[in-house]
Specification:
Layout: H1 2-37, H2 53-64, H3 88-100, H4 104-131, H5 134-147, H6 161-176, H7 184-202, H8 206-227, H9 231-260, H10 264-270, E1 273-275, H11 282-297, H12 304-322, H13 324-327, E2 329-331, H14 338-361, H15 366-396, H16 401-408, H17 411-420, E3 426-430, H18 438-441, E4 445-446, H19 457-467, H20 476-481, H21 483-487, H22 490-509, H23 521-537, H24 539-543, E5 550-554, H25 560-569, E6 573-578, E7 582-587
Parallel strand pairs: 3-4, 3-5
Antiparallel strand pairs: 1-2, 5-7, 6-7
């Protein structure tokens, strides 16, 4: 065994080195931020660099606090209902954090190194299996990690989920390239592992399990087209499908529960589901088409099996991005399939690199190869241009010393809540964006809105109104300009869909059409009416519409002096704790 390990290390040590580099690059901003204030001054409050990371951390903390259903990570009244988004990763990390007795943010700081490290090695193994070239595999896997380095710094999705996507596509490739299609032992092993990776992703990230299943079916079709052997896909599916179905059954049961909920349709709409047969994701499809042209030009230089496999990959990319043309359902308009799409195209690019190099040495293929290189260059320029800002932000950003000190000053407040308030008590925070750190570092819940969970639009709006009850700038225009803080992705995605239609029709017919409005006027009118009513009802009646135990006021926010005067007038509020810039009231 030791000899085998030594042999592997002697062959593939450069991949280990580059994996270390990737892991260090991802964790570097956190380490630099801590060093900015000195390790002795760090109190365990970590900086946040990725979008939505507080959301994922709060979900894990909610499981730690005893709410495994993840019905709502923020609002007490809904926290034990059915989940809208899959919870497996949160369960695993919650169990890990409690077992190791570490904080949830501390665990994810370590994950920033571990998972990108594993991802790099998996990518290297996958590309090596497709190309048989260690040099190409090293370069391609490392460049892909750099290209999406900001993504790999984002907790859970895609930092953790991408590992299973890469592992799943490795199994898909192993199945496709099985030389002996009667080798039942390998068919069973590969399909069993594929079903496991697929099953895990069903409970983590919809964009990646759909990538795996689409790629799997199309590669089986490609193999059928290549060899005309109907038994090969049947044998594979007969092993994969029952296991995958059993894995998915609890998810399907939960889906039925959520579907029956009366607020399901408006919740899923807030999360970005729109009903449209109009094709979207033109950028994603464009890069697939560029690579398809390159593949067709070089098809004579590529082995038949790899050529068909590449066709299947690119076909999967088209299906993923344009499936709504048939289904009429699109989750997050033009959104979350970008990384999966580039990954698919990247695998095809890796496959054609060696034939492209050989083509340059062949005079007969030189012109075609030159055109192919032009297409590849165009693809790389487009992708790196789109990702360059993210790469800079991921690698060269660290939190400033002043911001880090401000974050550490929150530690006594977190500790006070954990020591002096009942578990799952509800706090209304009048503070800045740090509000969403409280559910991560304390056992308390938020009073304010929480859109990505199973909850009615009416309640979302009412909670938003109360969270903003002291904001005198609120009118219909303000509500329209801040619509995403209330309805999340609902209107912005519908607006994008309408605008894409309008622009395409204008391009084809010359008719300008009417520009779409983001938020229909009646929605702004409705929320503004709720705001005025809450103001008229008075603070006690307004606040006690929903469960509330404490109010926190941060004196650093604008108008904090006026808000404090208003709160002091209320007999149902009792000031019980004061920090440098924070005062906490108990609701009686």
């Amino acid at each position: 065994m030791k000899e085998k390990v030594k042999k592997i290390l002697s062959k593939h040590w450069p991949a280990l080195i580059l994996a270390l580099v990737v892991g260090l690059l991802v964790v570097q901003p956190t380490v630099s931020s801590i060093l900015n204030i000195g390790v002795d001054n760090f109190k365990g409050v970590y900086p946040i660099f990725a979008d939505d990371e507080e959301y994922y951390l709060a979900r894990v903390k909610d499981v730690v606090d005893g709410h495994p259903t993840l019905g709502n990570a923020y609002i007490k009244e809904h926290q034990d209902g059915p989940y809208m988004l899959p919870p497996l990763a949160e369960w695993l990390f919650a169990k890990t954090a409690t077992t190791l007795d570490v904080s949830v943010p501390g665990l994810f700081a370590v994950n920033d190194f571990i998972f990108p490290f594993v991802t790099m090695l998996l990518l290297y193994g996958l590309i090596l299996s497709l190309t048989s070239s260690r040099k190409i595999s090293l370069i391609a896997s490392f460049l892909f990690c750099i290209l999406f380095i900001r993504y790999f710094g984002r907790a859970i999705n895609p930092q953790f989920s991408f590992i299973f996507l890469a592992a799943g596509l490795l199994m898909v490739s192993k199945i496709f390239f099985l030389r002996e299609n009667k080798n039942i032992k390998k068919i069973i092993i590969y399909n069993l592992l594929l079903a496991v990776f697929f099953g895990v992703l069903v409970y983590i990230y919809p964009y990646f399990w759909t990538t795996i299943i689409t790629t799997y079916f199309l590669t089986l079709l490609a193999r059928l087209s290549l060899e005309k052997d109907f038994w090969f896909p049947i044998k594979n599916l007969s092993i994969f499908f029952p296991i995958a179905f059993i894995f998915s059954l609890p998810y399907l049961i939960n889906l039925i529960k959520t579907y029956k909920n009366p607020v399901y349709s408006e919740t899923v709409s807030r999360m970005g589901m729109i009903n449209t047969h109009w094709p979207a994701a033109y950028y994603n499809v464009a890069i697939i088409l560029i690579m398809a042209v390159v593949l067709i030009i070089l098809r004579k230089n590529i082995g038949v099996s790899r050529l068909y496999f590449s066709y299947a990959l690119l076909g999967a990319g088209i299906v993923l991005n344009w499936q709504n043309v048939i289904t009429g359902k699109y989750l997050l308009f033009s959104g979350h399939y970008f990384q999966a799409t580039v990954f698919i195209v990247w695998l095809v690019l890796s496959i054609i690199i060696v034939p492209t190099i050989h083509g340059l040495k062949n005079r007969h293929d030189f012109i075609n190869t030159a055109f192919a290189i032009l297409g590849v260059t165009l693809f790389l320029i487009v992708i790196f241009h789109k990702q360059i800002d993210g790469i800079k932000r991921a690698v060269f950003t660290s939190e400033s010393e002043s911001k880090m000190k401000e974050l550490q000053q929150m530690r006594p407040v977190f500790d006070w809540f954990n020591s002096n308030t009942p578990k799952d008590s509800v706090v209304l925070y009048f503070t800045d964006s740090n509000m969403y750190l409280y559910p991560v570092y304390t056992h308390n819940n938020l009073y304010g809105p929480a859109s990505p969970f199973l909850i009615s639009n009416d309640e979302i709006e009412e909670r938003w109104v109360r969270q903003n009850i002291f904001n005198d700038k609120i009118d219909e225009k303000y509500i329209t300009e801040n619509e995403k803080t209330i309805w999340q992705n609902d209107f912005i995605d519908k607006y994008q869909n309408k605008e894409v239609r309008r622009k395409v029709i204008r391009f084809l017919t010359g008719k300008k059409g009417t520009e779409a409005e983001i938020l229909p006027k009646e929605y702004a009118e409705r929320v503004f009416a709720k705001y005025k009513k809450a103001k008229d009802d008075g603070l006690e009646k307004a606040f006690k519409k929903y469960e509330i135990d404490y109010i926190l006021l941060d004196r650093k926010i604008e108008e904090s002096g006026r808000i404090e005067k208003e709160l002091k007038k209320e007999k149902f509020l009792e000031p019980i704790k004061e920090f440098d810039n924070i005062i906490i009231y108990k609701v009686n």
